[in-house]
Amino acid sequence: MLHRSIDRVTVIPPLGPGFDGERHKATLVVAPGNFLVTDPFFLMADDHITLEGRFGEAHPHAGLETVTFMLNGTMEDTGGRLAAGDVEWMTAGSGIVHSEDAKVSTGMRIFQLWLVLPVEQRNMPPRVQILQRAAMPVHVEPGVEAIVYSGRLGDAEAPTKNAVPVTLADIRLEPGATFAPELPAVYNAFAVLIDGEVTAGTVDERLSTNMVGWSSPVGDGSSTLALRAGMNGARLLLYAGQPQKTDVVAHGPFIAGSLEELAGYYADYRHGRFPHASTMRPLTLT
């Protein structure tokens, strides 16, 4: 068994103006532009809403998956409803339009992750999965509760359909508790501290609220990432995924493998060839 270290630590930047007026603040947990290091994770935004109401406009995506984790509040559109602890896993693939007539609650906070799809599945038919917190498997150890939304931790395996092999878990640790989640050694991983403090990895890197610790692939086979909670316990989101090792071209809401493919997405969208999420029946996993 290989043991992981924390190779790089970043801090979530202060909130700035969002795209939806004064009530919307946002920042980047994972910034784009360094895909060689973050592969398969392209970016992750942290969005906060201070007043309920409409949120954004219908917009397209293609060539990627979005993973929207509802940390607080609710968000509802014509495609479904997310409450705190729920996740929308949307595979845009060849193209989709979503967030139609979206409405959010006061105090809403979401993390939205963009995943680069495997080359052979970049233009797969789009699909939407709603992962309800209450339906997700839970791995429990003394002082540890890990809700598994994708992949497997211990005896808990999520039914989520993955184009990109990914493990996603919401981990809560009681004060002083230890946990060593097992991950494929080839995965790139990062942990976001939502609350509290942990020491992580082989050299006990200290991570506290709003810090992000990255753990690079360590070889083949299985690996573990040691976590120990501080005196007040901790909550963290653990993301780990298989690097795609591909060149990408990104512009606006699209990720492609070439400028020609990117131009094709724009042409298809302009000609109304993208299905709308509201016309698709989401897969609600139970």
Automatic annotation (TrEMBL):
Keyword Metal-binding in annotation: yes
Domain Pirin N-terminal: 56-115
Domain Pirin C-terminal, chain residue ranges per copy: 169-274
Cofactor note (record): Binds 1 Fe cation per subunit.
Keyword Cell membrane attributed: no
Alphabetical keyword list: Iron, Metal-binding
CDD domains, A to Z: cupin_pirin_C
InterPro entries named among the record's database cross-references: Pirin, Pirin_C_dom, Pirin_N_dom, RmlC-like_jellyroll, RmlC_Cupin_sf
Pfam families per UniProt: Pirin, Pirin_C
GO molecular-function terms, A-Z: metal ion binding
Gene3D superfamilies according to UniProt: Jelly Rolls
Residue positions binding Fe cation: 59, 61, 98, 100
Name used for this protein in its record: Nuclease PIN
Species lineage: Bacteria, Pseudomonadati, Pseudomonadota, Alphaproteobacteria, Sphingomonadales
